Amino acid sequence: MRAAGRGWLAAAALSLALGGCAALTSSTPSEPGAGPAAVARDPLAARHRQQAETLERDGQLRRAAEEWKIALAIAPGDARARESLRALQARIDQVVAERLDEGRRALARGVHVEARRKFLAALALDPSNRAAFDALQSDTREVEFITHTVRAGDTLTGLAQRYYGDRSRGEVIWETNQLPPNPRLAAGTTLKIPEIPGVPFVHPEARRPAPAVAAIPTPDVPRPGPTTGPAAPAAPPTKEEFTPEVNPLLAEAREALERSDYPDAIATVDKFLGGKPGDREGLTLKKQALYGQAKSQMGARQYPESIQSLNQLARLQPDYEDAPALLKQARTRLVEQHYTQGVRFYREEKLKEAISEWRVVLEMDPNHANARRNIDQAERLLRGLEQRMKK
């Protein structure tokens, strides 16, 4: 009885304090049969409903879905919010399917840069989408670029002919640089010219120089006899050609990377770099492993771990692939995760726990207005409860 009385008292205080806040907020119809606590919580849900509608209008579909889920967590009986979330989820599923289809078509054309962008767009909307994640891991490959400084008169078709020997490849350059339709190339700007798998560069600037092969005299070539003229200058001694031995640690790290065992790949390449800190091949492997690990952690919603991997990658190369955008995305999702957890605690009347979660949100995003307002509400409730308990 005593525990039940404390629970009733807490619920009553919660209703009373939030009911006071409701007078300051535009009221919304409550669900039929909803109790006082549901009505009191409605202003908190109303803010999230409004944000969801605004985000959806702006095309930020995933963030809008998160806001609808938070609104439903606060007011589970809100039929309008449930229907809006259902319709939005159907829209997200359709857009994800379109991005996957566009990515597969880009792969069929050999445009790996575009394919990666489409699959990443699908993952941004649906982080748990296995098809997009698998396509990024196994179907697309890291693409190397060369940089071209635009000169007067340059065109995309002309650059495609220059570097690939095929004017129709101008679309690849267009997609890679995300240019507008029918772009006019301004002299002095730089463009990325991507490597196309299976299509070798034809321009001398883009081709890697072939290794020099020293001429080795054969036994059947007669040696010249003594001459009476001045002696010719002695030719420099030829160097014996040999194939460099592959370091076993690098080979092991590469194998781990191919099977997506990123922790093993990173640990192994770190052993190698311990003896050769500036080795280019070792650093390239480490960047690839950190990037793959970060994306894998994002897909598993391990946002703190993903942020840690991306921060390590940024120390090696701040502009690696789309790592800056991924880092921003991971931080945003971590903020959403803590905020949503705070809402759950609030709904369960675990006010101290809710406040702790929202304080984490403010540490990561000091401008998060909802977290700040929610903390104020929860602290007022706590003070009211403490005063009632003293009576």
What does this structure look like?
- The chain has helices spanning 2-22, 36-57, 61-74, 79-109, 112-125, 130-139, 156-164, 170-176, 248-258, 262-275, 280-299, 303-316, 323-347, 351-364, 369-390; strands at 145-149, 190-194.
- It is mostly helical.
- The chain has a two-stranded antiparallel ribbon.
- Helix 9 (248-258) runs antiparallel to helix 10.
- It is globular.
- 30% of the residues are buried.
Quickly list its features:
disordered N terminus; 15 helices; single chain; mainly alpha; 391 residues; globular; 63% helix
Number of strands: 2
- N-to-C span: 18 Å
Q: What's the helix count?
A: 15
What proportion strand? Answer: under 5%
Question: How would you sum up the global shape?
Answer: globular
- Which regions have little confidence, pLDDT < 50, spanning 5+ residues? 1-41, 207-229, 237-244
The assembly state of the depicted protein chains is: single chain
Radius of gyration: 31 Å
Largest sheet: 2 strands, antiparallel
Structural class, from helix and strand content? mainly alpha
Topology:
Layout (H helix, E strand, L loop, with lengths): L1 H21 L13 H22 L3 H14 L4 H31 L2 H14 L4 H10 L5 E5 L6 H9 L5 H7 L13 E5 L53 H11 L3 H14 L4 H20 L3 H14 L6 H25 L3 H14 L4 H22 L1
Antiparallel strand pairs: 1-2
Helix pairs in contact: 1-2, 1-15, 2-3, 3-4, 3-13, 4-5, 5-6, 7-8, 9-10, 9-11, 10-11, 11-12, 12-13, 13-14, 14-15
